[in-house]
Amino acid sequence: MSAAARVPAALAEIWERHHAAVLEQVATVEQALLALMRGELDDELRTRAAREAHKLAGSLGTFGLASASERSRELELLLGGACAPDATELPRLSELLVAVRDEVGAVLPSTPAPAPSAPPVEGGHLLIVEDDLGLAERLAAEAARRGVGAALAASPAAARELIARRRPAGVLLDLTFEDGTDDAYALLSELTGAEPPVPVLVATMRDTLVDRVEVVRRGGRGFVSKALPAPQAIDQALTLIEHASAPETTLLAVDDDAAVLDAVQALLAPHGMRVVTLDDPLRFWSELDRVRPDVILLDVDMPGVTGVELCRVLRNDARWATVPVLVLTARRDPASIEAIFAAGADDHLAKPVIPGELVTRVRNRVERLALHRALAETDGLTGVQNRQASTQALERLLRLAERYEQPLALATIDLDRFKQVNDEHGHAAGDAVLRRFGALLLESFRGEDVAGRWGGEEFIVGMYGMSGDNARERLGELLAAFERERFDGADGAAFGVTFSAGAACYPDDGPHLAALYDVADAMLYRAKAAGRARICVAGASAIS
Description:
By secondary structure, the protein is α/β, with parallel strands linked by helices. The protein is 50% helix and 15% strand. The strands form four sheets. Strands 2-1-3-4-5 form a five-stranded parallel beta sheet, sandwiched between helices. A five-stranded parallel beta sheet has the order 7-6-8-9-10, sandwiched between helices. A five-stranded mixed beta sheet has the order 12-13-11-16-17, sandwiched between helices.
């Protein structure tokens, strides 16, 4: 194997770009050693040489030159100590420098061959890998009803042929085929190991810990039971695609070493991350407001201000107190690691950067942040969005409706005589009613629709592209389904619950959310006044 092969393929271009600068850093250290040999080494040159050795220790290891990185670290320690090195240390310093220079010089820059381009992705395209043709067709039909194209493959081999022609946005993968599970697991590994990874949801009749662990090991995003109705299974698959195609995560990387910054950018960009780099830590605060990152990566040792100090500044400001912060450090002593976490950092990575570790740790923080946001936006009892999150989602839908000149129906829903349910059957029964109604909302409305709980037994639904007649039909279907539900009463007897609803439509009933809500609420009041289980749509003379 040639020396050049030691540079990871993803970083070959970065190494080519920074090779000359690395040689200059080595030359600065050599200049300091020559001055030491002549007895002319001053503090300024010694400090500069120690700084360049520190950068070499961090960047060379990232480029795969582990031995040169360790020797650079020793050079940094010898040059950057409290006292200047003396003539007795010169042989060791010279030995280290020659070894670093030889290794850096041996790894010549070479432009890598362009990587083969991945098959094109079609927006929203779902690949269903399932040998039960009836089930696969039901899933595909449900996806089509939501406006999502779906391709069917009866085996992992057939799936590979389809993927080679058209890369899917997400995959719903059965694990069990006539020849066993091995090839399905192999396909799972291939998909999640692609650049960028293809999100995979595993469909199975089994739900064992062994299966779950194996799927997680291979990068699967979750399980869906094959016993679920098609609408719920497709809901989960579309949620997977939505998360995968969500606006890219923005990471702000702060390091005074341009080579490290470029390496971080090259490693993270293929994983759907927008990396903004900053080599001057003193500009951090102004850049923070401009970039508004989702994740921050800070080097510890920087001139002017340290990464630990920047982390403390972040944690003292309410706007940035919860943003995940990862810290890069070449220090491994317990006191330094303790200082990093005491400043409020979420994690630390050792320099030199190990590519796989960087990607995994950043991705873990991003996914955990997304989970926390989802929990903060979801009503814990019903599973639909809470008032704040649904209001923001409705505002986004309204802007889309305005931009593309599409209608938007807004409905307010109130469960009839819900206080009576709590009084007669207890709050546990009332919670069961709310929980089931939330599930019905999620089953009944499309992925682009909005369903939220605004408090108590009051819910709101936004239906993009729906006219008043369409909204009445959809709400009528929801009401019929809810009326069929039965709940266990306090006396053991089953009982049912109904709801009333009012709806308004953009643009006919108002230009903004507040106006639409007022009209829908007035229609709800009119529906409740007419009796239980009524639906009243603005502009219609009749009440359903």
